[in-house]
Automatic annotation (TrEMBL):
It holds the Pfam family Aminotran_3. Signal peptide: none annotated. It comes from the Bacteria. Keywords: Aminotransferase, Transferase. One of its GO terms (molecular function) is transaminase activity. SUPFAM superfamilies: PLP-dependent transferases. The keyword S-adenosyl-L-methionine does not apply. Gene3D superfamilies: Aspartate Aminotransferase, domain 1 (3.90.1150.10). It comes from Rhizobium aouanii. This is Aminotransferase class III-fold pyridoxal phosphate-dependent enzyme. PANTHER family: AMINOTRANSFERASE, AMINOTRANSFERASE CLASS-III. Belongs to the class-III pyridoxal-phosphate-dependent aminotransferase family.
């Protein structure tokens, strides 16, 4: 998390976790919803289903990736989820179908570590 300013927080319980994407870690200004949705769409294109929070939550924001693997998920399944996210957010913007400004890099090691706890 310390490595990438786009990660505001990673939280969850068990295998269910979320990665909050922020434009500015100090102010916790949320990353624009269109960028978060671009990550979700790209993962779906890679055959990985993740979600994002919706505005029905108390703060009305939609900037947290939701990673809800099945209870029978294997370590390889979890790696596939984090790799799909990392493939998109870590790629140069020219390679993305919906370029994100600024280019963000998700610290997938944080998410992968959560599954080992």
């Amino acid at each position: 998390m310390e490595k990438h300013a786009v990660i505001g927080d990673v939280r969850g319980k068990g295998l269910f976790c979320g990665a909050e994407l922020v434009a500015d870690r100090k102010t916790k200004e949320p990353l624009d919803e269109k960028h978060v949705q671009a990550v979700v769409a790209e993962c779906l294109g890679q055959g990985v289903i993740i979600g994002a929070t919706n505005r029905s939550l108390h703060d009305g924001l939609n900037n947290t990736l939701c990673l809800p693997p099945a209870l029978i998920a294997t370590p390889e399944d979890i790696d596939r989820i984090t790799d799909a996210i990392g493939n998109y957010v870590g790629a140069p913007s020219a390679e993305k179908p919906n370029p994100m400004e600024p280019v963000v890099a998700l610290d997938v090691a944080v998410v992968q570590t959560r599954r080992r706890r």
